[in-house]
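Before surveying the methods themselves, let us examine one representative protein, pairing a chain with its fold in token form.
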Amino acid sequence: MEVIEGCRNLQEARRVERILRRFPVYWPTADDGNQALDSFANHHLTHNLSAVDALIAECAIALSATLVTFNVKHFRVFANLTTEQPYQR
């Protein structure tokens, strides 16, 4: 959803949706939500962490996945999260 949110027009959104169909959807568990709530509560004011970023990070941690993002700095508060920037802009 966050990738589609970054689209500037309907054509971009449709293109992104086609690309994203190739990937499985991971639905957050109750544990993911609880961990995200804790992380959000602890880091929202000190690190400007958003609720969506907290949920994304906790899902990636639960999956032992690398989070690929241009906003690497938003996720530095998560010690158990591996992040990677896809390419230099």
Remarks:
- The chain has four helices and two strands.
